[in-house]
Structure formats: C-alpha cells, structure tokens
Amino acid sequence: MMRFALFKGYSKIFQGKRVGIITNHTAYDSKGRYIVDIFQDMPDVKVTALFGPEHGLWGKEQDAIKIGNQVDPTYQLQVFSLYGKTIKPTPEMLEGIDVLVFDIQDIGARFYTYIYTMSLAMEAAAENGKRFVVLDRPNPINGISVEGNLLEPDFSTFVGLYPIPVRHGMTAGELAKMFNDQGWLKDGVKADLVVITMKDWRRRMWYDQTGLSFIKTSPNMPDLQTAAIYPGLCLLEGTNISEGRGTEMPFRQFGAPWIDSKQLVDRLNKLNLPGMLFEPVSFTPESSKYMGQRCNGVRITITDRNRLEPYFSGIRIVNEIYQMYPRDFQWKVKHFDRLCGTSAIRNSIIKKSPINDLRKKWQSELDEFLKIRKKYLIYSN
Prior knowledge:
Blueprint: H1 11-14, E1 17-23, H2 35-40, E2 45-52, E3 70-72, E4 77-81, E5 99-103, H3 114-127, E6 131-135, H4 172-181, E7 192-196, H5 224-233, E8 253-256, H6 261-270, E9 276-283, E10 295-302, H7 310-324, H8 333-340, H9 344-350, H10 356-374
Parallel strand pairs: 1-2, 1-5, 2-4, 5-6, 6-7
Antiparallel strand pairs: 3-4, 8-10, 9-10
Helix pairs in contact: 3-4, 5-7
C-alpha cells in the first residue's frame, strides 16, 4: 500500500509557524486523518485559516457556482473562498500566515481547476513573502500517459492557464515545480516552494493500485472510471449535448432528446476507439442540460484503461455527433475552445477536415513539452 510520508523530515518547516491550508474534503492521509487535525496535533504549529477551491471546502457545490467566505463549524476557522469574489489569496487573507499549504487531490486533466487554485496561491505566496508547501498526491489516471495539444496563450483562462496538454501525466507537486521554475507565474515571480513527496508511488499506478480509497473529488467526479475518460468527455460541456450531469453516471454517458441512440452507437463502435465500447442508453437529468427531459444517448464501457486515448476519443465523439446532427448540434463556442485551449479543433470539425490531422499537427509541440516535463518529474515508473 502506498503511504503518505507526510511530515517525515519536514517538521522544521512548520515549527513555530502560523499555517494556512488550501484544502477540501479529499485531504485525508493513508491512516484516515484529515489534514487540519494533522496540523493541529503538531506541537508548536498554529492553523490560522483555511482556503477552499471550486466546489468548496467539502466538495458539495456544483461546477461554476461562486462560493463566499465562511467560518468552518468544526474547527471554528476562517475559510476564505478561492472560487468567489477572488480566485487568488489577497494580502489581507495572508496577513496571519507564515506558511501556505496546498493539499487537494487533483484528477490529472488540464481543465480541472484545482491546479490553478494552487498556482495562483503560489503567486500570492511569492508576492507576500510566504513559503508555499505542496503535500503531493497521486495522479489518479497514472503518471505516464500524456495526450493532447498544448494550450495557446490566447485561450488562457481558469480552466487552463499554462501551455500544457490536456492529459499531462504529472502530480500536483510536479506541476508546482514546473509552474514555478518555467517562469509561468505572473511577472515571473517564484515561490519559496517545498514539495513534500509521497512514499511508494510509481508513475504507472492508477489510483486503485495505491491501496488508497478514492474520494469523490467533486460532485460529478464520483469514481476512477469517470476520471479516466474525463479528459475527453469534458469537451461535451462546450456543446448542447448532455455530458450526463444530473445523472448517476456523469461523463460516462451522454446524449440529447434528438439523438438516435442506436445509430450513434453503431457509428462510434465502428471508430474502434482504443479501450472503449459504446451501448445505447436513455436517461433523464435531474439537473444541468435537459433537466427533466428524456435524453437518448450512449454509455461508455472501458475495456482497457491502459489503451485509452480519452482526449482524442472525446474529439472524435464530438465530431461524429456534429456530422450526424449539424442542425441540432450547437457549440458553446467560447467554452469549447477554452477547454481545448485552441479554436483549431472546432474549426477542423466544422470544415470536415480529417480528424487525424489534428494529432499530427500538435505532435511536435507535445514532443517539446515532454522534454520540459522530464525536468520536473519526481517519481520513477
């Protein structure tokens, strides 16, 4: 079983310090202890504030819902929201803090916002003379597979700030090192960064091979299977296709009232997308798109997760639906492009250009990224 070597050899960093913790409901160690309890049990350490990301401190808010500051009833600590009026800690928030700690389970996709909560907090720590500590956690969909185009600067938003691919194959600690040392933080500032590493994690591991229990990282990320296909199926958010939000299988099923399930399934299965099979399904979302309406669609079965190419498969799924239903299909142009980090993918689909050409075009920049990435990898295969 993988263990978190949480504070072994690092206790001096926190002794005599006031600590602020950027965290949520995923921050348990391998013994089932919550991060705030761990710090409060440390001698000569004072936890002075908590900071919550998107979905809130306890991960219950839906995506894109702004959250206000509050006082946590369990610990009676101020909780500053980093997904409300501000997404970056202010100098006032950091006044009573010496060390800012980040401990949140990421999911391994560029557009999952927790890593940008981390990077903006790193900026704030650098600007205000605070040490920044990342308590590293596994990349649940393994740390080997890397896929996709790099984000273009014009599409930099909170669902993608830096030129990395959609599936980056890195841990939060490795990403923190990259963001810091590549000079990607605002004005090139550099945080006084410490990454507290994991023990016994290997890059080839999927989360269920660590011996740890998967904690639902957000309301629509219930399990590892969902995480495995999320880097591609999330693209449906940028269309009028239901990505299964408001059902028991978000991202693992998708559809719309006007889709013919059987025809779509037949076409998708003929694509022979690696590691995936499709079957017809109908569902009625209880929230989000088509709430209360019966949708006809597709359910995904993962046949071999090590062969998955979720991002490119997601592009091909969007393309197939668009070509089948050009009159019914609608783009949420701004959101789709910012998820992709480029407008080239949407334009290619609209122009009916060969989809495989997309991957050929982004391969050279991906090769360059892999060279940069290699400098920041902490763990072996």
